[in-house]
Amino acid sequence: VGEVLAAARVRWVRTKLVQSNRSSG
């Protein structure tokens, strides 16, 4: 269970970072 939540959280964080990076660059 923890793994699924961790994976989903990491995926969300990465997506947010990618969007921010794309907007900045």
Explained architecture:
By secondary structure, the protein is mainly α. The chain contains 1 helix and no strands. It starts with a helix and ends with a helix.
What key phrases describe this protein's structure?
mainly alpha
Please mark out the parts with pLDDT under 50 across 5 or more consecutive residues, or reply none. none
Strand content: under 5%
Helix content: over 70%
Mean pLDDT: 91
Order of helices and strands: H
Bulk shape: rod-shaped
**Using DSSP, what is the number of strands?**
0
Distance between the termini: 36 Å
Summing up helix and strand content along with how strands pair, one would put the structural category as: mainly alpha
Main sheet record: none
How many separate helices? 1
Give me the Rg, rounded: 11 Å
What's the arrangement of secondary structure elements?
Blueprint: H1 2-24
What is this structure, in a nutshell?
The chain is an all-alpha fold and 25 residues long.
